[in-house]
Design goal:
It is built from six helices and five strands, in the order E-E-E-H-E-H-H-E-H-H-H. It has 175 residues and is α+β, with helices and mostly antiparallel strands. It has one domain: Nucleotidyltransferase, domain 5 (2-Layer Sandwich). A hairpin with a 6-residue loop joins strand 2 and strand 3. Helix 4 crosses helix 5.
Amino acid sequence: MDASHFVHGAFLCYVWSFVRIFLKTPSGRKRLNVLGALDYSTKQLVTITNLTYITSTTICDLLTTLATRYPGIAITLVLDNARYQHCRLVQDLAASLGIELLFLPSYSPNLNLIERLWKFVKGQSLNGKYYETFDAFKASIEDCLGKIGTEYRTTVESLITRNFQLFDKETFLQV
C-alpha cells in the first residue's frame, strides 16, 4: 500500500535536441492523490482518490474497503513510514479489522512493490504528454488505473515480482 501524488504539470520523458524546444505545461498547482493497495498474488488494485491530502482518515477508508472486499481473508499490508500511517487511529482500526500492518525500514521505497506500479502509471499516462485541463489529466490517470487488471495485466505481472536489486560487498567502498 502506498500513495502517489500526481501533479498536473509537465512529465518529461526523453528530450534531446540541437535546438531549444519549448514545451507547454500547466501551472502544476492541482494534484490527484491516489492511495492504492495492490494484491501481490492477483495483481488487483484497490484505490481511493482525492484532490486534497492523504490523511489518516483516508488510510482508514482504504482499510475498511479492503476488509469489506476481502472478508475472512488474512490481510497483511506492506507500507512505508508515513506519519499518517503510524498514528493510533490507523493502528487501532487495522487491529479491529484483523489487518496486519507491516512497516518497511526507513528510506527503502524500492522494497514497496506498488512503487513500480506508480512508475508505470506515470510512464504510461503522463510522460511526454500535455493535458490542457485538469479533468483530462485526471481522466488519463484513472483510465490507466482502470486498465491495470485487463489491458496492462501482462505488463503489471512482469513488474510486480519479488525481484529486488541487491548489492555485493564489492560495490561499496571499504573505509
